[in-house]
Amino acid sequence: MRLHQLPRNRLARIATVDWAALTTNEARRLRELGVDEGVEVMTLHQAPFGADPIAARIGRMTIAIRRATAAAIHTEEHHVSAVAAE
């Protein structure tokens, strides 16, 4: 599922980023913000009617990105495992 398709407040992990689909500036900005495979992500807000921007929590940071940029970020469901007490 791509980031712009992720339901609000659902925790996921970034599976892959299609760096080739982004401009050099977009890719550099995302890397500077810590967007990379394995990082936790959650969509917090999406503008109505499919408009921009999308607010997402990447790691511990909240960022706003365009929907087209979010489409290059592929996510997978994140399962939080509980450690059983002995």
TrEMBL record:
<feature type="domain" description="Ferrous iron transporter FeoA-like">
    <location>
        <begin position="1"/>
        <end position="77"/>
    </location>
</feature>
<dbReference type="InterPro" id="IPR007167">
    <property type="entry name" value="Fe-transptr_FeoA-like"/>
</dbReference>
<dbReference type="Pfam" id="PF04023">
    <property type="entry name" value="FeoA"/>
</dbReference>
<dbReference type="InterPro" id="IPR052713">
    <property type="entry name" value="FeoA"/>
</dbReference>
<protein>
    <submittedName>
        <fullName>Ferrous iron transport protein A</fullName>
    </submittedName>
</protein>
